[in-house]
């Protein structure tokens, strides 16, 4: 299970305690699942200036082709940005350097 990490800072480079919302998307009308279980929670909120969250890799989720939409919010609750990512394998994934994917 990959560990997703990121560091949030303000324009001066100072740590900014915001949060991220990680949501599984791209499963259409299918029920998202693994080979052994149905996924009953499709979104997780991760608070902090140094984000760290284990999630299932898209490569073990059915149907194939799912991605994660990750939205970033400031410490004041302002929406900053969102991108989609394909997260696979079991290694740590750093959002500060990961390239986003285009929606299908």
Question: How many whole angstroms does the radius of gyration measure?
Answer: 14 Å
Q: What is the count of helical runs? A: 0
Structural class of the secondary structure composition? Answer: mainly beta
* Order of secondary-structure elements: EEEEEEE
Largest sheet: 4 strands, antiparallel
| Number of distinct beta strands | 7
User: pLDDT below 50 for ≥5 consecutive residues: which ranges?
Assistant: none
List the domain count as a whole number.
Answer: 1
Span between N and C termini?
24 Å
Question: Beta-sheet strand percentage?
Answer: 35-45%
Q: Can you tell me about this structure?
A:
The protein has 104 residues and is mainly beta. The chain has one domain (3-91). Helices cover 0% and strands 38% of the residues. It has no helices and 7 strands. It has strands at 3-7, 18-25, 43-48, 50-54, 67-73, 79-85, 93-94. The strands form 2 sheets. Strands 3-2-5-6 form a 4-stranded antiparallel sheet, with no helix packed on it.
Task: Write a concise keyword list for the protein shown above.
104 residues, mainly beta, 4-stranded antiparallel beta sheet, 3-stranded mixed beta sheet, 0% helix, elongated
Helix-strand layout with pairing:
Elements: E1 3-7, E2 18-25, E3 43-48, E4 50-54, E5 67-73, E6 79-85, E7 93-94
Parallel strand pairs: 1-7
Antiparallel strand pairs: 1-4, 2-3, 2-5, 5-6
